Amino acid sequence: MIEVRRLRVLRALADHGTVTAAAEVLHLTPSAVSQQLAALESEVGQELLERRGRRVAITSAGRLLLAHADTILAEVERAEDAMRLHANGANGEVRVVAFATAITLLVAPALTRLRETSPGLTLVVRDAEGHQGITHLLDGDADVAIAVEHRGSPRHDDKRLVRIPLYAEPFVAVLPSTHPGADHDTIELGMLADDDWVMTGPGNPIRDVVLLACEQAGFQPRIVHQSDDFRAVAALVAAGGGVSLVPRLAVPEPTLALIRPLPDPAPTRRVYAAVRNSRADHPLITATLAVLTEVAEKL
Prior knowledge:
By secondary structure, this protein is an alpha/beta fold.
């Protein structure tokens, strides 16, 4: 008989790559994780792991078991949801992770609306950068993630997730008031090739989009200042610290910096909601997604 909890341990190891990282996510000790995995190998009678230096690789038998584990874990989660709904009706908590702009534009208005339409639903919101939300979702720390499409995003055919597109927004140029481009209605990126730049930090998907746009325009930006807070970015630009590209809806209002559009096709930030496939039909989650979509349409 295969223990379901041990399948969760195997899935965490596959997602995070090391016993230590899996232990941290599962709130276990590394030795406890190793013991659970050894017991799982004993249960199935096959080697599921092989060590490669400090990391652990999943064997072909382990990958086969993982394919079944995702289905089993999804069904277990559905069963747990069904029992909770049977016990207390449609009352419950939905945990949402979102980046700061999405909290302001989407989640906060949705929270207000849900108080009217679903009084039994409690929304719990947590701030997470656009590239971190999916990790929290897959680790079970959230029920809904508001995320940004980037090159590190899960594949669209990842069966663990259901995605709902919310909105897309173009990037705009953010300039100091003394910039030569201030007199232009639109800014060609090549006009900013010799400027200092204010940029989000490494790992932020916004940085990837901006660097790619600059590369396509034929230059590498000279990055002087870094911040993941767009209010700070706008303040540094307004103070003469450089130029930047920022998603239009993320530009703080008011700002002393100048905002200029880019010619089409402008770089775009694409925002979507994601839920685990196992919970996509949960009434509380479908109610939350419906309101988030309704709010997004107004953007």
